[in-house]
Structure formats: C-alpha cells, structure tokens
Design goal:
The complex is a heterodimer of chains A (about 325) and B (about 400). Chain A is an alpha+beta fold and about 325 residues long. Chain A has six helices and 16 strands. Chain A has two domains: about 180 residues, Hotdog Thioesterase (Thiol Ester Dehydrase, Chain A, Roll), CATH 3.10.129.10; about 120 residues, OB fold (Dihydrolipoamide Acetyltransferase, E2P) (Beta Barrel), CATH 2.40.50. In chain A, strands 1, 3, 5, 6, 7 and 8 form a six-stranded antiparallel beta sheet that branches. Chain A has a five-stranded mixed beta barrel with strand order 12-13-14-16-15. Chain A is elongated and about 90 Å long. Chain B is globular, with a radius of gyration of 22 Å. Classes of the chains: A alpha+beta (about 325), B alpha/beta (about 400).
Chain lengths: ~325, ~400
C-alpha cells in the first residue's frame, strides 16, 4: 500500500500546468531532410518541393512524427531556447522517488496531429500532468503510471496560436521487484547481439606491406636493402645501419615455438578458449607473435616445429597462424 | 659564477628537423627518427651513445622505440612534460638537469607529430580511432590474435624463463605464499589474516598458462603520496629522514612496453639491470648492503629475474634463492614485507615505495632488523625505474 501522505500529494499534482517550451528553429527543409535521412524515410512529400506542390502544398511539409523533434533541447541537456520555461514538468517523479520508488521506465507515447506542419512555422508546446494512476504492480515492480500531455501550437501573428498536435508521454515510476538488478535493463527484450569480430590492427606506412602480404597468403619480412638485415616487427629504419631503405622478402613460414602461453581468462569474444599463442622464431631468424592452431596441449612445448597458414576472419582480415609439423 | 647546479652545465650541441607541412606522408615515428638522426649527425655524436630522452606527454612516439632503433644500450633518463604546448621549454630543462647531475650524458629532446594529417587538435573529436599512431600499430601485432592481457604478455616471458633455467610454477607459487604471509600480518592489506599455501596456489585456476590466479596481483583503488625535500631540511622535520641514495630509470637493448619479445634473450630484465647498476653506483653499495627489498610483483614470474638483475641471486639462480626461503619472513632478504601487490594492494608500485620508507624508519608491521638500505623497484616488462632508500 502506498503511503497515504504520498497519494494525497500526488493528487495535488494532477492537472498542474507548466509553461511554454519553444523550438530553437522555425520548421525548415534542411532539418527535415536530415531527419528523413537518419530515420530512413523516403517519402518525397518531405523532400521534393515539386512533388509536394503537385500534392497541393506550398512546399515540402514536415513528417508528422517529427513534431516532438522541433522543440527538443540542444546537444547539452536542458538547453532550451530563450523564453522557454525553466520549470520541470516531471517534478512529481522526484516526489514519488522520495517515498522509495527509485526506478523509472518510459512506457509509451501517443502522438496525434491536426494537420501537416509547413516550412517557416514557429512551434512551442506546454505541459500538463494529465493523470497519475493508483499504485500498481507489474512485472517490473510496484509504482505509479504518470502521464503528461503536451499540446503543440504554431505561433500566429495577430491571432490565437493554433493547436497542431498533442503528445502523451507515460512513464512508470516504481520500486523494482528484484532489488539489486536494474529492472529497466533486466526486463528489456534481448536485442540481437552484434557478432564480435577480431580487432583490426592499426596499419601504418611502416607495416602495411605485412598485412597486404597476409591478404595474399604471404608472410613478408622487412629487409634493409643496404645491410640486408631482416627485422620484425617492422620499423621505418634499420636497427643495424639506420638506413631508411627497405623492401620485404617472403619468409619460408617455417619456424619453431620460442615461447608460448595458453590463455584462459578473461574469455573475450570472438576468441575460442583456451587460446594458445606462440612466440614464433622463424628459420630466417626473426620472431613474431601468432595464434597456434591444431595443437594438443599435452604435446605443446618450446622447440616445437611449426608452419604458417593463413586464415581469413570476419571476411575482413587475414591472419598468419602456426600449426605444429613433424620435427 | 652562478651558484646554481644547473646554470652553465649543459648546452644544445646539435639540431635536426624535418620539413614542415600539412601532410608529411609518413609515420610520426619516421619523422622522429629523421630529426633525431640529423641532430646527432649535426653534433657528431654516435646514436648508440644516447642515454636520455625527454619529450611531451602528448607526443605519441615513445622514447623506448627511438632508443631501440638508435641502438641505445643504457638509457638512464627519460621524461615527459605534460600540458600540451605549455611543455615546450620543459624537455630542454629536463635534459639540462639530467646532464648537470650526471644521470645522463647525451639526452635527445624531441617532438614529432602528424597533427594536421592524422588527428587535428581543433576538430573537437579526440578519439584517434584507427590513425596509424605508434600504439595502434604496435598492438596490432597482438590484438588480432586475442593476445591482449598483461598476464599473457608476462606469461610469454615466464614460459621461456622456466624452460631455460628449470624454474617451475611452484617457484612462482613460493613467491606468492611468502608475500601473502606478510599480508596476513598487515592490517592494511586486502589479504590481512588470509595466508595461502603452495597447494592453494597450485590449485588455483589458470588465468593464462603458465600463470595461475594466485600468480596475479589484485586490482585496487587507493592513493599514496609522499613529500620529498632536502636531506638537510629533512633532518629538522618530525620523521627520521629516508635518504634517496640512488635513483634511476631504465631502458635496455631491444626494449618495448610489455612486448620485448624480439631481444636475443627474453629471460632477463636488462632494463632493471641498468637501474640496478646505476643505483648501486650512485649509492656506492652492492647487494650485500641491502637488508630488505620491495620487488615489483604485479605477476610473480618477474620477481625472479629482478632478484638476479640486482645480484641477490646469480643468473637463473633465483629459483634456488626462493626454494631456500631467503625471500620470506626470517630469510636473508625478506621482500615485499607489506604483502606486495599480490597481498596488500596494487597501487602501481607506489605502495611499495611507501613500505621502503617504513622499513628505513623502523615502522613496518613486518619490520626487518637493522635496516640500513632498501631496494625498491618499479613495473617490470616496461621501461622501468628503481630506488635505494636508506638511513643517513
């Protein structure tokens, strides 16, 4: 049962009205076009003036669903145009929260429209606490449904401003049924999880040849063209003679395990665990890090002979990996 | 004559620069190398002689990579000055101080940036994304394989160390058991009154073979601070002065940050050897003059080569030192008497410096008898540093 003091105070809120919130900009074609692009709306009535005129309008019109957008705050929170009210139309939520209902979830919105909005119109809305329910219990928890009504108006010179639509916005302010777990997250339907991909390497002018070689299933090693020293990882300058001149040679892909680890924790997608990783010393003398494949943990030891193979991952990168071969 | 220790002690001897443009068309590392090699040639100095670096903290070219490519063998000084362009004169000042005090003899000061073509400061977007700055390229050799944790990087060195010297997972475990024993009697330790056995260590789950869970330090919140002043003034203050007898940083042959896999030998920590030799030299001391040490223990395996680099054990002999219990309570060189980062907390080694201070003052909860000198080390596997703290 809700605290009677709370229900009494809540009732006093119903019907309370809050002042105007203005639109930053008059209704305009560029914002309409961008909104349509972002939302994937391709109705030419909103973007093609010729089409709109043929349909009987002076110019393009704004998509009705965009009504709320015109009066939204700027990028910073609560950044409303001059003349807008600084009252908080959701102040009743703070009151309810004070009685032990910490969580909030948006329930639904309803938009109704009187007519299309045209270019150049200046919009504002006001707010009114339309209703607050008795205490209710849902799967999320126990609390109150609070519904705000926001009528939108178009300003008119020398006449009463014209109502053009209304937004009903309903939230549920509640104490979660299962404390410790944010109910609004726990009860969200599980969206399709994006499939994790292997991270891409940073590629620079010093290292691009290596990754391009992998795409052609070639293991390339940088070579100083002055003193012939091989080097890996690649660098812009020779460690031995400081020459900036280099090319790349294809390695045999044969080598041995110089050291290794078997990673168990943490398990990070998309990698399979246990994940064996080798520090491979190529027969050409340089070392590189790479995943090990086809290994039997019991047999894995330093000195194991290995051979490179290339595997394409996520249809976007090819990595060298090493597989044990006979001694 | 000026009475300043700095004035008149250092000069700019060589100058190098690339062209200035809106699009260099090459990596920042290459720009840094071109300018550095030109400056050294201008001065007539062998690149391998460079033993110090200073730059801006916002510079994206690490000094260890320049040192590696120059072929520097003993780098004893490196610093970065924060606050963007406000740093400008700072690296020269640091270099002059290093030279005047004798810590370094040849210091390269540099700043290399593809600010226009790669990541303009003025865009309001400071996410550098996939621009080919050094870190993005360098970790590109590891991340695509999922080789992406400090435990894994340390494990790669540890496996080779075990193979070469016959050390075992139980030897790593003996490090953990000893420091957890100290933590168990330190009320400030997270693992106060929670000692472990070697069996606990061996039974703990794998994090990354060859590292068990109990080979890995904790993760912690916390802070440590200290005030440093002149020895003369410190004598007149409340506490017994803790003298900084030696202080050095270290980068050695083939250094990288956690990934020095390309050195001829990966079983040592030669950068810690650089630190050890330098701080022993400054203090005029050797390993026999040290009564206790704080040996950086984010992961147990790197404790062993540190004992070797500091001469507490011979190369490959740390396992025998540990099997004999010399590192434990009552041993010849008790280490990490606060419980280490394995047992007390992981405050990036600063809590270890604090324990060094307490041992010199005689205020440790696990006080070692007759402490005159304490070695304190910093992070391993990375460009590092160390101290000798002692009584007057």
């Amino acid at each position: 049962m809700a605290d009677p003091k709370l229900t009494e105070q809540i009732e006093a809120f119903v019907g309370r009205e809050y002042g105007r919130v203005y639109a930053w900009d008059r209704v305009n074609a560029p914002m309409i076009r961008q909104w349509c692009e972002i939302m994937g709306v391709d109705n030419p009535l909103y973007t093609d003036p010729a089409f709109a005129r043929e349909a009987g309008y002076d110019d393009v019109v704004a998509p009705p669903a965009m009504l709320q957008v015109w009066c939204m705050a700027g990028l910073d929170n609560e950044n409303y145009p001059p003349g807008s009210t600084d009252e908080n139309s959701f102040e009743v939520l703070k009151l309810i929260e004070g009685y032990g209902y910490p969580a909030v979830v948006a329930v639904n919105t309803e938009l109704t429209f009187e007519r299309y909005i045209g270019l150049g119109e200046k919009l504002y809305y006001t707010s009114r606490v339309a209703s607050i329910s008795d205490e209710k219990t849902t799967g999320l928890g126990t609390g109150f449904f609070v519904t705000l009504s926001m009528p939108f108006y178009s300003e008119r010179d020398g006449a009463d401003d014209e109502p053009v639509g209304e937004l009903l916005f309903r939230v549920f302010k509640f104490k979660p049924a299962h404390s410790g777990q944010p109910a609004d997250k726990a009860d969200q339907p599980k969206a399709d999880k994006p499939v994790a991909k292997r991270p891409l390497p940073g590629v620079s002018d010093d290292s691009r040849f290596f990754w391009e070689g992998c795409e052609q299933n070639k293991l390339l090693i940088q070579r100083c063209t002055d003193c012939q020293t091989l080097r890996h990882p690649p660098a812009p300058v020779c460690i031995q003679c400081h020459s900036f001149n280099w090319d790349a040679v294809e390695a045999s892909g044969k080598g041995q395990v110089y050291s290794f680890v078997v990673m168990h924790y943490p398990e990070v997608p998309p990698f399979d665990y246990p994940n064996p990783i080798g520090l491979i010393e190529l027969d050409e003398g340089v070392r590189l890090i790479a995943g090990l494949v086809g290994v039997n943990r019991e047999d894995l030891e330093i000195g194991q002979r290995v051979q490179v193979e290339f595997t394409r991952f996520d249809d976007r990168q090819t990595l060298p990996q090493f597989r044990p071969v006979a001694q | 004559m000026s009475d300043s220790f700095l004035s008149g002690k250092a000069a700019i001897a060589g100058l190098g620069a690339t062209e200035f443009s809106k699009n260099s068309g090459r990596t920042e590392l290459r720009l840094a190398m071109e300018a550095t090699l030109e400056a050294l040639a201008d001065a007539g100095i062998d690149p391998g002689d460079v033993d110090g670096f200073s730059s801006y903290s916002v510079d994206k070219v690490p000094e260890y990579e320049i040192a590696r490519l120059l072929g520097c063998k003993e780098v004893k000084f490196f610093s970065q000055i924060p606050h963007g362009g406000g740093a400008a004169c700072g690296p020269v000042m640091h270099a002059a101080m290093a030279v005047a005090t004798g810590v370094a003899k040849t210091v390269v000061v540099y700043r290399a940036m593809n600010e226009r073509s790669w990541y303009r400061f003025g865009t309001g977007d400071y996410g550098f994304g996939n621009t080919p700055v050094f870190d993005n390229v360098n970790y590109g050799w590891y991340m695509p394989h999922g080789f992406h944790t400090p435990a894994a990087w340390v494990g790669m060195f540890a496996q080779r160390y075990m193979h070469t010297y016959g050390a075992t997972s139980e030897d790593f475990g003996r490090v953990a058991v000893a420091v957890r024993d100290f933590a168990a009697t330190n009320p400030n330790a997270f693992f106060y009154e929670k000692p472990i056995t070697l069996e606990d260590h061996q039974n703990s789950r794998w994090i990354c073979e060859p590292l068990h869970l109990l080979d890995c330090c904790q993760e912690s919140d916390g802070a440590v601070a200290m005030v440093i002043t002149s020895v003369e003034r410190a004598r007149d203050l409340k506490q017994k002065p803790v003298i900084i007898k030696g202080a050095s940083q270290g980068i050695a042959d083939g250094q990288q940050s956690m990934t020095s896999f390309y050195r001829d030998d990966i079983t040592g920590l030669p950068e810690m050897g650089v630190v050890a030799q330098e701080i022993y030299r400054q203090a005029g001391l050797g390993p026999d003059a040290i009564q206790t040490a704080v040996i950086y223990d984010h992961f147990t395996p790197f404790v062993l080569p540190q004992l070797e680099e500091f001469g507490f054990a011979e190369r490959g002999g740390a396992k025998d030192f540990i099997r004999a219990g010399h590192h434990a309570r009552g041993g010849r060189l008790p280490i990490n008497t606060h419980g280490g980062q394995l047992g007390e907390a992981y405050i990036h080694g600063m809590n270890g410096v604090a324990e060094g201070v307490r041992q010199v003052r005689g205020q440790s909860v696990n006080q070692v008898d007759d402490v005159e000198n304490v070695v304190v080390t910093a992070g391993t596997g990375v460009p590092t540093s160390g101290l000798i703290l002692g009584v007057a």
